[in-house]
Amino acid sequence: MTSMGKTRRMLSVGLSGAALAMALAVPAQAGEAPAAAPGWQLAPTGTDARFRGLAAVSRNTAWAAGSKGTVLRTTDGGRSWRNVSPPGAAELQFRDVEAFDARRAVVLAIGEGEASRVFRTEDGGASWTESFRNTDPRAFYDCMTFFDHRHGLAMSDPVDGKYRILSTHDGGRSWRVLPDEGMPAALPGEAGFAASGQCLVSSGPRDVWLATGGGATARVLHSADRGLTWTVAESTIPAGDPARGVFALAFRDRTHGIAVGGDYRADQASPRAAAVTEDGGRSWRQAATPPPAYRSGVAWLPYGGSAALAVGPTGTDLTTDGGRTWRTVDTGSYDTVDCTRDGACWASGEQGRIARLTRG
After folding, report:
1. Most buried by CB count within 10 Å: which residue of 97, 143, 251, 295?
2. Residue 191 carries which DSSP code?
3. Could you write out the three-class secondary structure of 230-247?
4. pLDDT tens digits, 236-259
5. Whole-angstrom Cα distance, residue 156 to residue 175?
């Protein structure tokens, strides 16, 4: 078990959104006892799969998707996890999961050609339907996002010099490739990172953002019409190498966003691993005090206003000022993080690691 307050005992109850934000953001005043520190409490999952896909639905329900074709689901707040993996999927690498409730979820498998697939369940994972299989050997799908329970997108690395966007209007039951006339040209070597299921994110009914790396600059693309037309802006996160760029995005509304990333190689520094936008991604500003290392996942805290968490292989960082400054609050390894509107935050990563944020 890792802890933001190493000497504090973990409890298995979650925090309300408001209490969570206050506990993370408000220091004790002079003469007062320190507030109980929240921390990640690991849950036994019974698997060593690496979970880069995570969908937090509520305090009770969450889904995780990972290597070896593994999909897990909890409906009791993380006290137990049920293996609900699609049959015959052991060779697939799931990197993203989007869930609508305890019964309906969509998972994305990544890879070249037919390795990129989408599966959907309507019965809590008791059965699955393969709703998309990529037949273009040039395509490699990385991430997906949903605007609501019907409308969603998935993105592929560039094909013929442009990112390819897949669209669904029926909750993932069927998919079609969108025309690319409104998509800007990709940079040489540019691609998305299938590291946390957060290289394609949405906010509201129509806005969606796409994170890139590997090219000369790390960029963020934005569409206000569900992927038909896009604009592009440079971030401040370094790129110029296949291992560097923006790995994850989070928008708390259609204006305020955070980008995190860096260089995923353990022996390489990531000195400018976070950036913020206050104009919907038209411009980005470097974090004044960024996380100290590469971060692959980021999520806004529920009801926190300006509080967010970023995670990566070397730790978890907290911001309470909208992403301008960060401080490390945990040193455990996680790949992705997600929070719910009713006050629950979850993180997942290597060696079957799934944890819930709790009060210590």
Report:
1. 295
2. B
3. CEEEECCCCCCCCCEEEE
4. 999 999 999 999 999 999 999 999
5. 13
